[in-house]
Amino acid sequence: MAVRLSWSLLVVGFLFLSGLYSARAPMGVWKNTIFGSPAWNEADPGSWYVMAAHELTPNEQPLFVGHPGSTLLIILAGIQHGVYAISSPDGLSYTQFTARSLPKVFLASKLTMTLLHLASFWAMFHFSRRILRDRWAAHLATLAYATSLPVLYFISRISAEPLMVLFCLTSFLAIWRYQELVVTDRPAAALVPVALSAALAVSGALSKFNFLAPLPVFMLAYLLYGTREATDAHIPLRDRAKAIVVFLAAGSAVWQFYGLIFDVGAFWSFWRSFLAAPGAQLSWTLLGWLPGISATRIFPLAESLFILIGVAGWLMFLRSHRGLRERALWATAYACFTGLLWGYRVLHQGNFLPFHYFFLPAAMLSVFAGYFVTQAVSRLPETWHCGQRAALAVFGVCLMHAISIWTVLDSRQFDAAAYAKNREYVELISQLKPGEKVGMSRRQPKMQRAHHSIPFPIPQLGRVSRLRQELDDMFVFVGPAKMDPDSDTLVVPGLVGRVAVFTPDP
Length: 506
What we know:
Layout: H1 2-24, E1 31-34, E2 37-41, H2 46-54, H3 70-87, H4 94-100, H5 102-132, H6 135-146, H7 149-153, H8 161-182, H9 187-205, H10 209-212, H11 215-225, H12 237-258, H13 264-276, H14 298-320, H15 325-349, H16 359-378, H17 386-400, H18 402-420, H19 423-430, E3 437-440, H20 466-473, E4 475-477, E5 490-491, E6 498-502
Parallel strand pairs: 3-4
Antiparallel strand pairs: 1-2, 3-6, 5-6
């Protein structure tokens, strides 16, 4: 009962903080900061996804093909259509309504991202429990993952990371379910989780290609060489062959489905041009690699202890549970691959800012960090009762990630202050009725009107974003003479002059 109450409070807490800070800064164009040090741009990559999802159409190449984020585009498109259907505005088309209601769209999208992270916590718990065979250790592992810097920082940001983790962990869970069923008298039922694993692995690959592209092949290898852990049960070769055929068939079918919105040629064309572009000239210094209170140095300060505890727990588990090694080693092998990608990105960039590459290594380390903490509290004197041990374990995990929590709260406060500067301007746009425009007292290049956070489309596609075009069409130059100084006009930071609601002459 106490555990359920604790997790209910955690879920409510995540949703509350996500809703609070998402409402205070739903969208915009500014540099996020970490303790005053610039990190990423608020619009990247969420605004690209929102723009592309708006006109996602089967058999038509998406406007944004970057990661490629195909599953995320489907979800975001559903959110936008849902918001439009619920509001049922009179006289406004789908695009006109969305352009005027971007804060509402971004808020709904960010809350959905938080729900996806919560779903990944569910997967994390079951993933940890299947490896450790310890329910309490799995709870602590999930808490360790949920409070890690990458997860907390991205808890409400629009990105493919929670889907990446969710698809990866559940694909493993499906394979493990197959191994449990196939050695019983239900070999036909065992093929259902095989098909599910294939669907999840392919979906993951088309969510975050650089991390999960090898996952379908890896799972095929697991089907071929993996065994039923901790038993002497043998999986016959005939059953393995059936599983591989089902996996290939299901994976191919799911790939064909995503092919309706995923263009392989456009994807590779984008990345070839992106990789060919000259990178920033970075200078490596010893100070840049040391822990510190800045965007590029906060990761080792916030996560070094967590990493050490996770590695120590991994060694302890392998040494103490020889019969339960296989699942841990297979999952670790894939986590090591993703860890190498993180290491390469850090070395290439010359600092620790790309901590968003650390999601999957963090998930695996969390499993064994939970095991380590469980073993540590089990060695307490017998005078400590269960409630005290549990409270100490939870406190220890939270203390381990105290700097991560502090970091994210500081960054979110900055985002809220940045959005507050333009809140009145954005609300002015959201109140436009059919036929009304934003009148400007002075002519401005369109790039200076980018407070609405929708970027220009990728030039290689040769297409114009309907959402971006609608936003640009909402502005009209009326001149200072038509701007009544006594009317409800606004001075917008970044725009020279004033803006106000204006109805053009017919």
